[in-house]
Amino acid sequence: MTIIADSQHDGPAPRAIPRHRGHWLWGGTFDFQRNPAEFVLEGHERYGDVFMTRVLTGHSYFIRDPDVVNAINVTHAKHIYKPKVVKQMWKPFLGNGLVPNDGESWRRQHRLIMPGFHKMRIDAYAPTMAEYTRDLVRGWKEGEQRDFRKEMVELTLRVVAKTLFDTDLAHDSETVHDAIQDISEALIDHAQTPIPAPRWWPSDRNRRMVRALDAMDGVIERLVSARRKQREDRGDLMSHMVFATDEEGGMSDKQLRDELMTLIFAGHETTAHTLTWAWYLLATHRDKLAKAQREIDITLRGRPIGVDDLRELPYLEMCLKESLRRLPAVWIYGREAQEDLRLGDYFFPKGSILAISPLAVGRNAAYFDNPLEYRPERWTRELERSLPKGAYVPFAAGPRVCLGKQFAMMEMRIVLGTLIQNVDINVLDGFEPDFLPELSLNPGERGMQMKVRFRNDAPVLAGDRPQSRPMPSLRAL
Ligand code: HEM
Questions:
Q1: Quick one: which of 301, 362, 441, 462 could link to 325 by a disulfide (CB 3.0–4.6 Å)?
Q2: CB 236 within 8 A of CB 277
């Protein structure tokens, strides 16, 4: 399929796009809001790879055709921005940080921040990630029940604090923790209410949100000003951002605050929830878990996992890729056409919302046979080579691809690898999580209940010395 130039409507007539009519006045607004994931998944089942509906006064298109997904993400990205409604939603929290930013201002910020995510810098965080995971596991007691999701949110927050600010947030941990909790709740509320209350509205939740934002702003301001005074690059992302300059100079304090807040938010819950789903899928597929355990045991022989071990752990990576296909934390993201666009066989008028759901994209039976099955083995080189661009997008793609993709993939392999090495991955007997398609797909208030069961000879219990656990043969893999 070829993509015909933007705004050029000659050539073959565009294909008609099936429409979900919904209510005569509201269109699909409330159908979407009632159960957004069901709406999108059923819509694609019923109408195909591209369908539309009216949401409030505008038109929203839901797209899982890989060529059109790729055109939106990559080839036509410069004509497509973040939706205004999404920017408004983020504004009180992230200001003009990378996620809601667009155009020249986004390009400049991206240029300034991107080198902070260089592989060498990221690799240097691996020992911290491994150490914090072992710390977490050391704090667990055999037989006790825990909410794995909560454990992961706390762990990833600790990792973000260390790698962003080079601080354990020892003095601020409670402030930051509570503030992030309150801000996250306010954000979800904000995202799910058609007309959210203004910031000055004297509701309890609003008051909590304003207090939380003030507290976070205070912590960030203090850390930035200390780093400016120290004039020392401590290897953390904040150092990079505080000292990054271009011909216009460095970032203002306000822009720095927005970017740091963005990284805290973009960087911890997404990772925590992906780890939660990876855990759940392994817990409910014991044969896959046994395979992952064997790979880890043979490769590590009881020592802590390091960044150089990761390339020797292909099955671990396959488990995560499959998990991101089946239950992607960022289950939907949106764009807005800045002009009339002809993308492949379809025409999208200026101003329309283009929604891509990695959850729906990953369930497309045209590219993933038996798509509801959890099968890490499907992630062969051949599959990766044969998949069209746009058929697997848990981190988006193109210029707006997730800036933390390498960071997240490394962190998740280190965390999950350490867990597999030390504990039995399980969910409590009879426990079924919820699947809440909020800002990120999460298991809701009941969390992911598990029972702590250490493996025999768990290295964390034996001071991380190499163990005598009998090594299975490589052929068993
Ligand atoms: C498994 C974990 C993660 C997933 C699934 C994920 C997914 C995504 C997706 C789908 C986007 C595009 C959203 C959109 O265009 O609306 C995105 C953007 C972004 N992510 Fe991630 N992310 C993860 C972890 C991280 C981490 C750890 C960081 C930082 C430490 C991070 C930083 C960002 C930033 C800064 C953007 C905006 C990039 C831009 O627009 O220039 N993410 N992420």
A1: 362
A2: no
Q: What is the pTM of this model?
A: 0.93
In the structure, how many helices (H) and strands (E) does the chain have? 17, 12
* Ligand 1 centroid, distance to 421 Cα (angstroms): 28
Q: If we measure between CA atoms, which residue out of 1, 64, 2, 60 comes closest to residue 28?
A: 60
CA distance 298 to 469: 10
How is the chain split into domains, by residue range? 1-94+331-393
- Token pair for residue 407? 């960071």
Q: In this structure, what token pair is assigned to residue 278?
A: 């990876």
The DSSP annotation for 156-177 comes to HHHHHHHHHHS---TTTHHHHH
With a 6 Å cutoff on the Cβ, whether 329 touches ligand 1 is yes
* 179 DSSP β-pair partners: none
- Look at residue 319 and give its three-state secondary structure: helix
Cβ atoms of residues 102 and 91 within 8 Å = no
Do residues 187 and 439 lie in contact, with contact meaning Cβ atoms separated by under 8 Å? yes
User: How many whole angstroms separate alpha carbon 434 and alpha carbon 443?
Assistant: 5
The CATH code of the domain at 1-94+331-393 is 3.30.43.20
The 10s digit of each residue's pLDDT in 43-81 is: 999 999 999 998 877 899 999 999 999 999 999 999 999
> Nearest-CA neighbor of 118 among 335, 420, 404?
404
Query: pLDDT tens digit string along 326-356?
Result: 999 999 999 999 999 999 999 999 999 999 9
Phi, psi of 23 (to 5 degrees): -75, 145
Quick check: CB of 396 below 6 Å from ligand 1?
Answer: yes
Identity of the amino acid at 118: H
Burial class (CB in 10 A: 0-12, 13-18, 19+), 303: middle
302: left (phi over 0), alpha (psi -120 to 50) or beta: left
Mind listing the pLDDT tens digit for each residue in 410-419? 999 999 999 9
Q: How far apart are CA 440 and CA 434, in angstroms?
A: 13
> Distance (Å, rounded) from C-alpha 20 to C-alpha 56?
14
Cα dihedral 40, 46, 48, 53 sign: negative
Q: In 105-115, which positions are buried (b, 16+ CB within 10 angstroms) versus exposed (e)?
A: ebebbeebbee
Q: Is the beta carbon of 264 within 6 A of some atom in ligand 1?
A: no
Q: How far apart are CA 321 and CA 28, in angstroms?
A: 32
Measure CA of the first residue to CA of the last residue in the chain; give whole Å. Answer: 40
Ligand 1 centroid distance, CA of 9 (Å): 34
Pocket flag, ligand 1, residue 274 (CB < 6 Å): yes
> Which residue is closest in CA terms to ligand 1's atom 2?
271
